[in-house]
Model the fold of this input.
Amino acid sequence: ATAGATLTLTATPASGQRFVSWSDNSTTNPRTITMNAAVTLAANFALVQVVPIGDGAVTFGAGSMNLNTDTRIAGRSCADGGDGVNYSVTALTATTATLFNAPSTGCLAVNDEVVLINLQGNPTNYSNVGNYELLRVQSIAGNVITFAAPKTKFYGDAAGNDNNLGVNAYNQRVMLQRVPNYQRVVLSSGAVLTANPWNGVKGGVLFFRAAQGISNSGVIRMSGLGYRGGVTTINASGAGGGYQGESYGGVGVIASNNNLSGGGGCASNRSTGGGGGFGTAGSVGGAAGGCGGAA
Done:
């Protein structure tokens, strides 16, 4: 092409595949480039994941059903949890996830659909919090899960890496959770469908498919099961203060300013902590004892 000319490139996937990115990590397709120098580009494709309807139809009767701990799939047995069992992730490659604990027999299986999600960062690194994608299990070897197709997002400290995942202080909190693929879901009157609350490491996610829809005469409830509010501390002499509410940047400290999306606590004695974070900046805690900033 002549110097300065523009070219439009279109990556067209074959049947059963999808476009992922160009070799320079751009995801624009089609894309236009200006020919000021020699350019070499390759298109990356991945197999389309066909979602199976493998978990049958389920009916939730009156009472509470926790998708992370309770089992409704006929013939399923999992010592680690329920239909939507989850695990903390400690390392990632493009096609594998290393889990903190190896799944027990029957908990994950080849072709299971899973959601991979970053749930919380740390005070200085949180750009990947909220990233998630749906993947399919190709194989399981101990605590290493291999995906049927490469993941397309990042979950580590920085926008383009998967560093610093784990369950220790200042690690990125990344979770892998099984996604039940129900055929049809019926919630009877009095049924409450929920999931585990966020515990500082994992939880707080309710995720399932219903290929033929949901008949809901009950309640699907996750209210108040996300980031936790700050606590009040009182030492032996009766002094203490309220912690900031938790946020996408981690747990707070005893302070009245907000913790990103978490509310501010109060630095005065016997004061309450701030509310846990949602999508906006938390409010600042007041100066008197007994106050706390709202989420």
Notes: Residues 184 and 213 are 6 Å apart (CA to CA). The chain is about 0% helix and 30% strand. The longest strand covers residues 132-141. The radius of gyration is 23 Å.
